[in-house]
Write a structure and sequence with these properties.
Length: 440
């Protein structure tokens, strides 16, 4: 080891004003910057390359303290370790130790705050909060995020047969845990592999969702029952019933209807343009408006109403709730009894059509969209692609999606008018009569 000469005494240090490096001894230098500030630098050779390690400012580190740090660095080098790499590892370990007190619940809260602006709506944010609160916090919420293991995740997913009886929800929970843990690792709150990762990890411990999930379809109205349903709906005069009629006429989703604003409607071109942020596929959707749809909009439109005002608003500048249209189904007898476990907590009377058949139990989503899709397939000759475009379904085939640029707006217009006309048919006109197929 080179002899320490301590060349720089206080007088010399004070006199150094020209920018440069000044040797104190055995690799320790005082660096004077162009601005006149002074700091300690330790230079050493590692694998044939000279490296510089900053030790600190002269103001904070007097010569004796700088020499002690240089001594420690030389000892590390003598042990075969690079002192810069050791300091980096020590800093990371200290950061991890400091952050290890962060609980999973705290990280989940911060993750949601960091990402909520990119999510589509308040309902999605609530779903994140609720699933973390109900399924995750009881098991790992108070646990340090650095200590979450595969055993914790498996125990959480298998509690009360969660993974097998509510697999769709359970898989969403697993994915959310995975995202939060990845986020925590990026910020230095934990290290190592993600214990909630599916591919190559959890897939070895739990049955695949495709093996245990039972597809749950939104209950839809049979096509031939539509005239009876529309007759029942026509007796309702609420704002929500108008919204439901427009949802049926446009084959749109609940959130697209209840958050519709007047600025989206072009009465002259007979087009409703739904912005991308409200669409499931994340792309703007243009809906050709039938005469019947325009009638509803004209009935609700008031001269001078601002573009940002909601079309269907039960209260001043407040949209309808997501349950408002389902409540209309409830009032006219098309919803199922409310059941908790094996107990029916809200029985429903058995309601029937005029011909004695019981009314089916349906959903808004299923009837507005699936029934429309069934009508296209069963009662018309319109091509499948036209119906899919009307429903704004994302194209699964990436190659096809890349080449399909048009929206078929004008080709969809006669189809939506035919659909509106079908909804206007009287109940008696469809009884025991084969429906005429509509030519494309």
């Amino acid at each position: 080891m080179a002899k320490i000469t301590n060349k720089l005494n206080p007088q010399k240090i004070k006199a150094l004003n020209e920018a440069g490096y000044y040797l104190d001894g055995a690799g320790l230098y005082l660096q004077v910057s162009k601005a006149g500030s002074k700091s300690w630098i330790f230079k050493y050779t590692r694998n044939g390359k000279t490296r510089e390690m900053g030790l600190g400012s002269l103001l904070a580190l007097p010569p004796d303290a700088a020499r002690r740090l240089a001594d420690e660095a030389r000892t590390v080098i003598a042990s075969g370790v690079d002192p810069l790499e050791k300091r980096k590892a020590d800093t990371a370990a200290a950061t991890l130790a400091a952050n290890s007190v962060r609980t999973f619940a705290e990280c989940a809260t911060d993750y949601i705050k960091a990402h909520k602006e990119g999510w589509k709506n308040a309902k999605h944010i609530d779903q994140w909060k609720n699933t973390i609160r109900d399924y995750v916090d009881p098991i790992i919420g108070k646990l340090s995020v650095a200590d979450v293991t595969t055993e914790h995740v498996v125990r959480l997913l298998q509690k009360d047969s969660f993974w097998t009886t509510k697999n769709e929800t359970a898989n969403r929970v697993r994915n959310r845990i995975e995202n939060i843990l990845d986020w925590a690792k990026t910020l230095g709150y934990r290290t190592g592999e993600n214990p909630a990762r599916w591919r190559g990890h959890m897939e070895n411990l739990l049955p695949a969702p495709s093996k245990i999930q039972k597809p749950e379809h939104h209950a839809a109205l049979p096509v031939d029952d539509l005239p009876y349903f529309m007759s029942d709906l026509g007796k309702q005069t609420s704002v929500a019933s108008q919204a439901l009629r427009l949802a049926l006429l446009t084959a749109t989703r609940t959130v697209e209807i209840i958050q519709a604003r007047w600025g989206e409607v072009d009465f002259d071109k007979k087009v409703w343009t739904i912005p991308a942020e409200r669409m499931k596929a994340g792309e703007e959707h243009r809906v050709p408006l039938s005469d019947q749809a325009l009638t509803i909009l004209n009935e609700r439109h008031v001269e001078g109403v601002p573009d940002e005002a909601y079309i269907f608003s039960a209260r001043k500048n407040k949209p309808l709730s997501t349950a408002a249209m389902e409540a209309v189904l409830d009032r006219i007898g098309y919803t199922a009894p409310v059941q908790q476990g094996r107990q029916i907590v809200r029985p429903m009377p058995i309601l029937t059509y005029p011909d004695g058949r019981p009314k089916p139990h349906i959903t808004v989503h299923g009837t507005c969209r699936s029934t429309f899709r069934d009508w296209v397939a069963e009662k018309t000759e319109y091509p499948r692609d036209l119906a899919e475009m009307a429903l704004a379904h994302a194209i699964a085939d990436k190659t096809e999606a890349a080449y399909r640029r048009g929206t078929m707006l004008e080709r969809r217009r006669p189809m939506m008018q035919d659909w509106a006309n079908w909804l206007d048919r009287k109940p008696s006109s469809v009884t025991n009569i084969e429906s005429k197929r509509v030519a494309a």
